């Protein structure tokens, strides 16, 4: 038998005061409260391969619309795993090295070159990854002048091999070398929407 009389509260019978306190105890949250409403993190979307435009095929001459080489004509070699386009001027003709470009910033022309003799099977996105530079702490590191990064020896050798194969294919077509060397420009009165490339 419990000691003392029972108490009636809101239709419930509590035998002791301890039972009543336990029934009405509020669960305490942690001491940390977020300043703003925390939104749930979105689920990562699957990375689908970028679809290549039908007009862009290996050997197509493209016109660059962005970067420091804008207006230059380059030769498309292949599409990389990241979806970017691997192009080359070639460097020996118009100074454009092996580069990755987004297909949204190129114009595909009707000019094509036979690139069956160009081997770029071993060229991937990892080839264009820059090496991390060491950071020196303190005043010396803050005022230290860092020169421009130079391409690796592997990349230089690959550039020479690609240039040799491309130049051989370009020399076989009349006026193609001067066409690649000429920069694409627009003058007053030109209507690019009516041009046929």
Secondary-structure element series: EEHEEEHEEHHH
End-to-end separation: 100 Å
Strand content: 15-25%
Number of strands: 7
Low-confidence parts: 4-9
In this structure, how is the largest beta sheet organized?
5 strands, antiparallel
Helix/strand class = alpha+beta
Mean pLDDT: 82
What would you call the shape?
elongated
Q: What share of residues is helical?
A: 10-25%
Topology:
Elements: E1 7-9, E2 12-14, H1 17-23, E3 60-64, E4 73-79, E5 85-88, H2 91-94, E6 99-101, E7 106-112, H3 139-143, H4 153-171, H5 176-181
Structure description:
The chain has 197 residues and is of the alpha+beta class. Helices cover 21% and strands 16% of the residues. The chain has 5 helices and 7 strands; from the N terminus they run ββαβββαββααα. The strands form 2 sheets. A 5-stranded antiparallel β-sheet has the order 6-5-4-3-7. Strand 1 and strand 2 form a beta hairpin. The protein is elongated, with a radius of gyration of 33 Å. The model is unreliable at 4-9 (pLDDT under 50).
């Amino acid at each position: 038998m419990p000691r003392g009389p029972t108490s009636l509260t809101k239709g419930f019978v509590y035998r002791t005061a301890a039972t009543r306190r336990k029934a009405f105890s509020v669960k305490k949250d942690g001491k940390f409260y977020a300043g703003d409403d925390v939104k749930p993190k979105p689920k990562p979307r699957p990375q689908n391969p970028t679809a290549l435009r039908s007009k862009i095929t290996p050997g197509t001459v493209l016109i660059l619309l962005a970067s420091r080489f804008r207006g230059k004509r380059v030769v498309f070699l292949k599409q990389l795993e990241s979806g970017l386009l691997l192009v080359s001027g070639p460097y020996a003709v118009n100074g454009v090295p092996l580069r990755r470009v987004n297909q949204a910033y190129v114009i595909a022309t009707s000019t094509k070159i036979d690139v069956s003799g160009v081997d770029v099977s071993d060229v991937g996105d990892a080839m264009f990854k820059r090496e991390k530079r060491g950071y020196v702490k303190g005043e010396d590191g803050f005022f230290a002048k860092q020169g421009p990064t130079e391409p690796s020896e592997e990349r230089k050798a690959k550039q020479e091999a690609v240039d040799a194969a491309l130049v051989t294919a370009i020399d076989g077509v009349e006026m193609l070398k001067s066409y690649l060397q000429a920069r694409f420009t627009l003058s007053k009165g030109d209507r690019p929407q009516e041009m046929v490339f």
